[in-house]
Every structure is written in structure tokens, then in C-alpha cells.
Amino acid sequence: MLEALIFHIRLRRDEVVIIDMEAGIEHLGRATARAVDKMIIVVEPDKGSIDTAYRIRELAKDIGLENIAVVANKIRSEQDKDFLIATMPDFEFLGFIPYDQSIIEAGLGNLPLINSSPEVISQVQDIAERLSAVKTGSTDKPIS
């Protein structure tokens, strides 16, 4: 069913589809993978998250997904950012989303995230613009 939905939305209407999946891609079949233009792996600045990103990339390659990028999440400092870049030098980073306690509080209070952290929302919008630019062939914005 997932395969049919992806093919219908992506190939017939040419829209962007973002699917939030649990860590790992074992549940994707080869047919579904053909419909994926870019896989985005979300990582946090810790060894376990980085190890998972490497495993996901290998699983993705096994089913033919080569266009893979990373979004770093919960970045608390330049040290966190530098750590990820240093430990994942062969990954494409789309952006770095800062840690913000107000996002956690909004989630706990079932409040809209869009109103919670202008800085986080700005970074997410930059990532979306970068992805759109790649799709349309425009020049990418520099990653900060």
C-alpha cells in the first residue's frame, strides 16, 4: 500500500512527499525505493545516532538508494556541529537544527511547534528551501 501511495503522489502529481519512518529502512522494498529521490537521515550529536546513520546508509545502498543526506537535530553548540561534521565527513549535511527547550515544551503541551521557536522554524525553512533548490536546479543556500 505504501508503494502504491508513493507512486501515485510522486509520479502522477509531482509533489514532494516526506515520510517520517522509524530508524532503519528494512520495511522499504526495492519498488518503493525507486520512488525516493532523496533519503534524509536525522542525526543527533551522539555516537549511537551516528552509528545508526551509517547503518541506515548501508541498508539504503543495498536497496538502491544512493542520494542520501543528513539533517542534524538538537545542536547545542558549535562543538556539536563540528563533532558531527568530523565524524561524518562523507555525508551531505542539509542543515543543523538547534536544540530548543520550547520545542519540547510545545510537544508536551500538544501546542503547535510553528509558534514555539523562531530559530528552529527558520532552520527548517532553510532546509526545505535547499531541498526545493536541488529539485528545481537552483543554487543551494550555504549551510550555517
Keywords for this entry:
144 residues, alpha/beta, Rossmann fold, three-stranded parallel beta sheet, 6 helices, 3 strands, globular
Q: Could you walk me through the main structural features you see in this protein, from its secondary elements to its overall organization?
A:
The structure is a single chain. With 144 residues, the protein is α/β, with parallel strands linked by helices. It contains 6 helices and 3 strands, in the order H-H-E-H-E-H-E-H-H. Helix 4 links the parallel strand 2 and strand 3 (92-98).
CATH classification class: Alpha Beta
**What form results from the Cα inertia axes?**
globular
- Percentage of residues in DSSP E strands: 5-15%
Uncertain spans: none
**Strand order in the largest sheet:** 1-2-3
DSSP helical segment count: 6
The number of distinct structural domains comes to 1
- Radius of gyration from CA coordinates: 16 Å
Bin the helical content: 40-55%
For the termini, the CA-CA separation is 38 Å
DSSP, total strands: 3
The major beta sheet can be summarized as:
3 strands, parallel
CATH architecture descriptor name:
3-Layer(aba) Sandwich
State the assembly state of the protein chains: single chain
Class computed from helices, strands and strand pairing = alpha/beta
